[in-house]
Specification:
The protein is α+β, with helices and mostly antiparallel strands and 211 residues long. The chain folds into two domains: 108 residues, no CATH class; 92 residues, no CATH class. It is built from six helices and ten strands; from the N terminus they run βββββαααβββααββα. 22% of the residues are buried. Bound molecules: zinc ion.
């Protein structure tokens, strides 16, 4: 049986996606950024809700519909509370709603920079295999090979080589996983039996703790 060092990396993008919208202020297609604010409009027993964006060039606002003419009784009370209080966490999650953005914009800029929280799930004495489980609560425009290369200080060609010989495995296994964007539930397993600097080099990078 192989001995494992298991870690979980929770990855949160630093910047929300930016849709390109025809700007009514400065003209032409422009990148818009979420303002982190909600606008509500009550009409009798019905409610409209928008997330407000701003043109990065001229600051003109664009309101993205969250819902329109929704009967108050049909709105989840937790959602209503979040909207009415401008709950920053709820709004942040909504600003990563790529499906909703894709319905409004042909082009959406995503940003690869992520904050990473590393957590050790299991650390067996004399471990020879590293397993990294990814948790990605918000859509992140980061490719798996870029993430691993930068965090484990490896070249992407070395990663490819490890993958090709089966020393690096990714679950679930799909074609071209290394080039795909990171997603929750992915587990990267790296067999380091033949590597002598496991504890000196790999462990601090994987766990984020110095020796
Ligand atoms: Zn503008």
């Amino acid at each position: 049986m192989c001995r494992l060092l298991r870690v979980r990396w929770t990855l949160t993008p630093k910047t929300a996606p930016q849709p390109w919208i025809a700007c009514g202020g400065c003209g032409g297609l422009r990148a818009f950024q979420s303002s982190g604010k909600i606008r509500l409009n009550a009409n009798g027993r019905k409610l409209d809700a928008w997330l407000i964006y701003k043109c990065l060039t001229c600051n003109k606002t664009w309101n993205r519909v969250i819902f329109e003419r929704q009967a108050l009784r049909d709105i989840d009370p937790a959602v209503l509370e979040a909207l009415q209080s401008n709950d920053p966490e709820w709004i942040r999650a909504e600003s990563f709603n790529l499906d909703a953005l894709r319905r409004k914009a042909q082009r959406i800029d995503e940003f690869p920079d992520v904050d990473i929280v590393r957590q050790v799930l299991g650390d067996t004495e004399g471990w020879t295999r590293l397993e990294i489980e990814l948790a990605v609560p918000f859509a992140a425009g980061t490719r798996l090979d870029r993430l691993l290369a930068s965090e484990l200080k490896l070249s992407r060609s070395r990663l490819q080589a490890l993958h090709q010989v089966g020393l690096l495995r990714i679950a679930p296994e799909r074609s071209d996983m290394l080039r795909r964007r990171i997603r929750s539930g992915t587990v990267v397993g790296i067999d380091l039996e033949a590597v002598t600097d496991r504890d000196m080099l790999w462990k601090p990078l994987a766990t984020g703790s110095p020796l």
